[in-house]
Amino acid sequence: MSFHLSGSIVQNFKVRFPRLSSRFRIKALAAGTAAVVLAAFAPVSAHAGAPKAPRASVALTFDDLPGIVLKPEQGYVDETNEKLLERLHHYHFPAIGFVNEGKLDEIVRERQIANLERWIKAGHDLGNHTFSHGSPNALGAEGYIADIARGERVIRPMMEKAHRRLQWFRHPYLETGSPAAVKDRIDAWLTAHGYRIAPVTIDCDDWEFAEPYDEAVMTGNKAQAERIRNVYLAYTERTIGWYRKGARVLFGRDISYVMLLHDTRLNADSLDGLAAIFKRQNMKPVALDKAMRDPAYKTPDGYQGKDGIEWLERWSLALHKDLPWNEYEEVPKPISEEYNKLDNR
Question: What sequence ranges are listed for the domain NodB homology (predicted)?
Fold first, then answer.
């Protein structure tokens, strides 16, 4: 997801909600209780004393570079990237950033490009996230392919100059094309042009926390920012646990996960907390290429629907195994309400 500037904010986020997958059907029956909402405010330290989790690895992927922000303030975007990259370096965490080149002209083009160069200089790869963050449902196969091709005009030569290969593609909204003919056409083009699809096997909906967090930071409300950050980290740790349980249902073991994050101030300010979660969960951040060597990623993806769903759900359909949706938690209601209020402003 992305907080695109100008009039596209509403358009991009409204597409996210029609994910009428099994998690939402279960939600209608099981979610929304006061206990679930209140549990979201439990401190992260509530996990202290729990048995040590099995060892696992996770690739950290950040969408919507060169950064997403509530208001078009270039200095804020620059500071976000500088801090995020500094904390990744501090923890020696490899990462990859997926770029929407359409963002380059949304604020100050040369400074937006400089942020992409920061990522490469810091040792991280860049991937293609399309030019406009559009949907294949709206653009069709050929329009979507054109948007992918347009989204590499800056980053491909940038990567080549750094003696690296542009090889990773991430679908906006995780929408891979529908019906089958559209998906197959897009997949064939990606393969022919040397791209590999970057799947998602952990998605903690960080985008929904990020806009309220920007509002708190930009208005100087430090207490509100801290509250949102703490709720985000607590929710993220529980959601990571759910995905790990889901992987064990499908494969009988932890897989090497690929985690979807976004280039936001929230994640820049939360990297210390995320590092603490990975330590408690016994998870080691690794490069995307290394994570993708896990045999789980050879599982067929036969999903052909319009909804953007992550890969554990796709694989559950292919393997005819049910994920534990009755245990899945939606984003806490107070966060969703605050996000909706800002999005409708």
Answer: 56-286
Angle among Cα 26, 27, 32 to the nearest 5 degrees reads 145
Kindly list the domain boundaries of the chain, sorted by start residue: 8-343
Torsion of CA 189, 191, 196, 201, to 10 degrees: 70
Q: Among residues of the chain, what percentage have pLDDT more than 90?
A: 84
Verify cis geometry, omega within 30 degrees of 0, for the bond prior to 43. Answer: no
Residue 62 phi/psi, 5° resolution?
-115, 120
Residue-wise pLDDT tens digits, 258-276: 999 999 999 999 999 999 9
Q: State how far the Cα of 322 lies from the Cα of 151, in Å rounded to an integer.
A: 36
- The superfamily CATH assigns to domain 8-343 is Glycoside hydrolase/deacetylase (3.20.20.370)
Distance CA 311, CA 313 (A): 5
What pTM was estimated for this model as a whole? 0.89
